[in-house]
């Protein structure tokens, strides 16, 4: 096959995918306290040779411009180095009776270079999106226990989750009668004072079991609610 390719003037393309440790971000979400003007997040490069270009910005839940500025917005992160992203609130106007969801975007671009064997190397640009929750000062206390107020109801083949709190609740998992309830990642994020419907699996529905991701990225204990079909 190789002689044939050479005769046709076609050279095989070799794509090398080197193992990359990548950039490490010091958190899985950001809680922006309403009584502060800024917060921060660490980013580090654990690799020994490859530097990265880091670009960061905040946008709204629907991609709109957000009232936050990230500094530095663009910088080089050398091997073994760490830097701090400062997230600064540039204007007010957020609701004060509930949390508001934004997205922190962090894009890491590895330095382009040829490998030792002169083969083509494919470098992957990684974009990480972290939820940024603006939490009004009046809601500073209560977030840790808000998940306990989550309730569920059943109607026909639909399971409805009701979040009566002013906080976003990020479900890690839901099950009904021991069977997992199918849901997208977006559907597992319950907005303040909101309801969300999920299709029920066949069979018994009780108990409903769930757990929630905390401010620190860990999981709460599994909570259960006994429920029956109406």
UniProtKB/TrEMBL annotation:
Annotated keywords: Chaperone, Fimbrium biogenesis, Immunoglobulin domain, Periplasm, Signal
InterPro entries from the UniProt entry: Ig-like_fold (IPR013783), PapD-like_sf (IPR008962), Periplasmic_pilus_chap (IPR050643), Pili_assmbl_chap_C_dom_sf (IPR036316), Pili_assmbl_chaperone_bac (IPR001829), Pili_assmbl_chaperone_C (IPR016148), Pili_assmbl_chaperone_N (IPR016147)
Subcellular locations according to the entry: Periplasm
Domain Pili assembly chaperone C-terminal intervals: 162-220
Pfam families: PapD_C, PapD_N
SUPFAM superfamilies linked: PapD-like (SSF49354), Periplasmic chaperone C-domain (SSF49584)
One GO CC term, this protein: outer membrane-bounded periplasmic space
Keyword match Chaperone: yes
GO biological process: cell wall organization
Record carries keyword Manganese: no
Top-level taxonomic group: Bacteria
Protein name: Fimbrial assembly protein
